[in-house]
Amino acid sequence: MNDVKIHSLPAHLRVAFTEAVADRVAAGARGDTVLGRPEWQLPERLADQLRDWLGNPDPVDGFRVVRGLFDGFAQPGPTPAHWAETDPDDSAAHDVALALAARLLGRVFGWTDQQDGRVVHNILPSRGYEQMQVGASSTVPLTWHTEDGFHPERADLLLLACIRNPDAIGTLLAGIQRAPLSPEAIEQLRRPLLVIEPDDSYEDEDAAHEERIGMATVWDGDHGLGVRYDPSYTVTLTDDPAFSAAYQQLGAAFEECGFIVPLEPGDLLMVDNNAVVHGRIAFRARYDGTDRWLKRVLVRAQGVRPTRELLEHGYHQQQTDPENQVVPAGV
Ligand SMILES: [Fe+2]
User: What percentage of the chain has pLDDT greater than the value 70?
Assistant: First the structure.
C-alpha cells in the first residue's frame, strides 16, 4: 500500500528528544531500566510536546507510522541470532527512546514468561522457529492476530520500532472498522464461543488444561467495533454453523481489507491492538547479522473491553513492570 501516511517528527522535537535520550544512555540508562528511575523521565515540557505530537493511532484506521524518533542514533550492530543474545548496550539508544516514548502513551509492561520479563522485546528471526506462529518465525507468513489475544490484560497499543529491514519485509495490518462484515456475522462474533490460548512464545505448556472461559471476538469499543482474534491458537467451543461461517467471514474480511506497511529503519509503528490485527509476510532469514530486526513494546491504556473478560484467568500469565517486577492482577 503506497498511501500509508508517514508522520515525520518536527526537527525541534527530534533534536530535543535525541539529546535527552543520549544523556540518559550516557548516565547508564538502558531499555529495561530507564523507566524505573524518576531522574530519567523526560523533561515535562518535552514530554508534553512529544505526547501531543505522537498522539494515538487514528480511531478508524487504528495505526500510525512515525518517522524520526530514532534518527539521531547510531545504527546498532549485527542483528542477533536470538532475542536472548541481544546486547542491551548495543541498541541502548533505540531501546531507551522507545521506552520513553511508549510511557507517554500509557502503562508499559512485559510478561513474566516472555523474553525474561523485559519490556523492550527483540523481534528477529531465529533458527528453529522458522515455521512457528511467533515473532521469531520467517518462512511461514505470520497470520492475522491480536497481540497476546489470550489475555484480558493484553496491550491496548502495540509499538514496533524498526532497527533494520533490508528486504522491506512487510508488516501486515487489517482493521475491524474497515472489514466487510454482514450485520449477522457481527452479531454471531459477539457471542463468547471461543477461547484463545497463549502462543508458543510463552513458556506455559499447560494452557490446554485450564478452564475454558468463552471469549467474544468483537464488541462495541471506543470508536466502533473492537476485535480479538488469533485463529492459530483458537479453540472453538461450539459447532454452530452460523458462528463458524461468521468466523470464516471475518478471516476473509481481513484478507480483503488488509494491507502492507513496509517499515524502514527508524520507523515506529503504533497499532491499536483493540481495533487492528497484524501479521507478517513470509521471508527467508539469512542469519548473517543483516536480518530484519524490530523492537516491540506493549502499552496498556484505557481501551474498552467486554466486562466478561474480567472472568478470565489469562492462563495465569503475569505482567511485569519496567523494573521487571510482577504486576499484581487487575492493575
Ligand atoms: Fe504479534
Answer: 97
User: Mean of the pLDDT values across residues 191-214?
Assistant: 84
**Res 1: pLDDT:** 46
- Ordered by start, the domain boundaries in the chain are 6-327
Under 8 Å between Cβ of 36 and 94: no
310 CA to centre of ligand 1 in angstroms: 23
The hierarchical CATH code for the domain 6-327 is: 3.60.130.10
Give the span between the Cα atoms of 277 and 227, in whole angstroms: 8
Q: Which residues of 66-75 are buried (b: 16+ CB within 10 A; e: fewer)?
A: bbbbbebbee
Residue 278 Cα to ligand 1 middle (Å): 6
CA dist 175 and 318 (Å) reads 28
Residues 207/212/218/223 CA torsion (nearest 10 deg): -70
CA dist., res. 305 & res. 216, Å (int): 10
How far does the centroid of ligand 1 lie from the alpha carbon of residue 47, in Å?
Answer: 28
Query: Cα of 146 to ligand 1 centre, how many Å?
Result: 7
Residue 331's pLDDT band, with cuts at 50, 70 and 90, is: low
Q: How far is the CA of 104 from the centre of ligand 1 (A)?
A: 22
Rounded distance between C-alpha atoms, residue 177 and residue 275, angstroms: 7
- Protein residues near ligand 1, an ion, with CB under 5 A: 147
Beta-carbon contacts of residue 251 (< 8 Å; ≥ 6 apart): 144, 231
Give residue 205's pLDDT: 65
Give the burial class of 141: count Cβ atoms within 10 A of its Cβ; 0-12 exposed, 13-18 middle, 19 or more buried: middle
Ligand 1 geometric centre to CA of 107 (Å): 19
pLDDT interval class at 2 (50, 70, 90): very low
Per-residue model confidence (pLDDT) at position 204: 63
Between CA 280 and CA 282 the distance in angstroms is 7
- Mean pLDDT over residues 146-159, rounded? 97
Q: How far is the CA of 98 from the centre of ligand 1 (A)?
A: 17
Task: Give per-residue pLDDT as tens, 42-77.
Answer: 999 999 999 999 988 888 889 999 999 999 999 999
